[in-house]
Amino acid sequence: MAEPCNKMFESTDEAYMQRCIALARLGMGHVHPNPMVGAVIVHNGRIIGEGYHQMYGGPHAEVNAIRSVSNPEILKESTIYVSLEPCSHYGKTPPCADKLIEMGFLRVVVGATDPHDKVNGKGIAKLRSAGIDVTVGVLREKCEWLNRRFFTYHRKQRPYVILKWAQTADGFMDIDRTQQPQGSYWITNPELRVLVHKWRSEEPAIVIGYNTYRNDHPALTTRFYPGNSPQRFIMARNAELLPPIDGFTYLPEDPKAVLSTLYEQKINSVIIEGGRQTLLHFIESGLWDEARVLTGQVRWGQGLPAPQLPGDADESIDIHGDSVRIFYHHS
């Protein structure tokens, strides 16, 4: 499920599907554990309706797109583009496939098949059985990449794992705690701190190790960015012997057990923002999908070395002199 490279659209279908993807992204941080989905309705070569899944438990993209159409009578002569297969089962809302059949769409174009075991081709089969022309797989890789959290959750039965740490220009992520007092030691600039809080708003959970909590007492909220704060967890050995911490939940000090617990709680992605040992637990076990490495301009000369990942970063950006490198685990 590698992110596809950008290229010129090969068809009108691809152009409309790209619009679906752009709309779907607007639901980031608000719809999990559901996928982000966008929908576009086209009549005689003109977009007459658009919608996206805005909030978990709320109407799906197809319904919002239909509601945006001023003249529903022409839906029978229209094509609807959807970035993910319309659902075929009752959940928080009725099946979208039934709604499309009810409205009598001439054609349905689907980006990717839904991997959920209650859907997984059933929505497409239902539409075709009703006599609707269905095209599947338009910009499929891009549609799957958009929902890589959702696809990982259902295909691998675990959350999508994002590692994140900050390091100095000379490769240290923390001071020597035996020599200096507890507290936070900032490495990156204020702009990157805002970016980190934006990232937190996009994921339902965040995990640190107990040593990180004891040394830094991080809030792990989105106080610098307008968005939802993730659920907060602490990995700890013998957690049952530790005092409870308001707003935090303990997890065992084992990556597989952590991901299994989060999976059972329907958490489809998590940021691991712990210290070196916590990060190495996930790196060495191979249980990670993405790593975001922030490098500041400061140099400490000594301290706790940051983890090292093999190869070059897949993405890299500079923000006011500091850098962000993103690695994807190509397993």
Structural write-up:
The protein is of the alpha/beta class and 331 residues long. 27% of the residues lie in helices and 24% in strands. It has helices at 12-24, 61-67, 96-103, 122-129, 140-146, 148-156, 190-201, 210-216, 255-264, 276-285, and strands spanning 38-43, 46-52, 79-84, 107-112, 133-136, 160-167, 172-174, 205-209, 231-235, 248-251, 269-272, 290-295, 304-305, 315-319, 322-328. Helix 3 (96-103) packs parallel to helix 4. The N and C termini lie close together (10 Å).
Describe the structure using short key phrases:
331 residues; alpha/beta; 5-stranded mixed beta sheet; 10 helices; 24% strand
Question: Helices and strands in order, then pairings?
Answer:
Layout: H1 12-24, E1 38-43, E2 46-52, H2 61-67, E3 79-84, H3 96-103, E4 107-112, H4 122-129, E5 133-136, H5 140-146, H6 148-156, E6 160-167, E7 172-174, H7 190-201, E8 205-209, H8 210-216, E9 231-235, E10 248-251, H9 255-264, E11 269-272, H10 276-285, E12 290-295, E13 304-305, E14 315-319, E15 322-328
Parallel strand pairs: 3-4, 4-5, 6-11, 6-12, 8-9, 8-11, 9-10
Antiparallel strand pairs: 1-2, 1-3, 7-13, 12-15, 14-15
Helix pairs in contact: 3-4
β-sheet strand percentage = 15-25%
Helix content: 25-40%
* Shape estimate: elongated
Q: How much is the radius of gyration in Å?
A: 22 Å
Main β-sheet, spatial strand arrangement: 10-9-8-11-6-12-15-14
In N-to-C order, the SSE pattern is HEEHEHEHEHHEEHEHEEHEHEEEE
Oligomer type: single chain
Largest sheet: 8 strands, mixed
Which stretches are poorly predicted, pLDDT < 50 over at least 5 residues? 4-9
Mean pLDDT: 92
The number of helices is: 10
Structural class: alpha/beta
Total strands: the figure is 15
How far apart the termini lie comes to 10 Å
